[in-house]
Specification:
heterodimer; A: mainly alpha; 2 helices; 2 strands; globular; B: mainly alpha; Arc Repressor Mutant, subunit A; elongated
Chain lengths: 84, 201
């Protein structure tokens, strides 16, 4: 099973892939409406907001946690500024 | 073995690393993450103590590798168990089942979390992010259909996690002879769903 290079989500169904295209390496949640992959800043912002909304963490803590989670993913491994 | 070709040397190296990670996970589950010396892991794996440090520069690096591997396995298993369009009960039941499969080490992570390096907490947060994603999707759908009372996503998630973690961290009181989630999981799921039942007019 493929996992999204930008958020780590396992992609099981066709609907999980960006534009429903199993050839893509990123998921539907990491795609812009035109099917291109979101930028690092877009992903960081959306993931931080997701953590705040669904887990209630402090905004700053959520952003740092999102930053660390993204740093472990193939799409963002070389992202400047990502914490070790 | 000096003349072994590079491919078999690499395979052997990978196999030893995997053995160390799996053995460390078992030892941490048994004795605690912070309380287990690398010498115990080497002994249990049947390798020389120095071999551990050929693969992991520090004890912290070994802990980080074990937890990262664990996080990936739990997250993947969770996605396998939660079907598309799953109900809230399905998601909660899948979460209990998944945690039950990894109960020993997961409990260690919850209990020792704040004593461990930041990378550990990030992995734990990653697992929570995965389950909160499924939980929020199912809860939003059921709230829209009027099957549960509306509840802020973070409070629903934290209420559920608070309940599960309380039973896990006190497993010795609730289920001294076995899995606390096996014994109480279904009751905890029923209880949360009862709390979320729509209010009668």
């Amino acid at each position: 099973m493929k996992t999204c290079i930008a958020c780590g989500m396992p992609m099981r169904e066709t609907a999980d892939f960006a534009l429903g295209d199993p050839a893509k390496d990123y998921c539907v949640h990491c795609a812009r409406p035109d099917g291109t992959m979101q930028s690092y800043e877009e992903k960081l912002t959306s993931m931080s907001a997701f953590i705040v909304r669904n887990q209630g963490l402090d905004q700053g803590v959520a952003r740092t946690a999102a930053c660390r989670m993204l740093a472990a993913l193939p799409a963002w491994k070389d992202q400047p500024g990502a914490p070790l | 073995m000096k003349n072994a070709d590079p491919v078999s040397r690499t395979l052997r190296k990978e196999a030893t690393r995997k053995l160390l990670v799996e053995t460390a996970l078992d030892q941490y589950t048994l004795k605690g993450i912070t309380a287990t010396p690398t010498a115990d892991i080497a002994r249990a794996a049947g390798v020389a103590h120095g071999t551990v440090f050929l693969h992991f520069s520090t004890q912290e690096a070994l802990v980080a590798a074990v937890i990262e591997d664990f996080g990936a396995r739990v997250t993947l298993r969770l996605h396998e168990l939660v079907a598309q369009q799953a109900t809230l009960r399905d998601v909660l039941t899948a979460h209990v089942r998944c945690l039950e499969e990894f109960e020993g080490f997961y409990t260690r992570l919850v209990v020792e979390g704040r004593l461990l390096p930041t990378s550990t907490r990030t992995t734990l947060l990653g697992i929570q992010t995965a389950i909160s994603f499924h939980l929020a999707q199912a809860a939003d759908r059921e709230a829209q259909e009027g099957r549960i009372a509306p509840c802020p996503s973070h409070l629903l998630f934290n209420t559920w996690l608070g309940l599960v973690h309380y039973y896990l961290t006190n497993g010795d009181l609730f289920a001294p002879d076995g899995s606390v989630l096996h014994k109480y999981g279904p009751e905890l799921v029923d209880h949360l769903l009862g709390l979320l039942a729509p209010k009668k007019e």
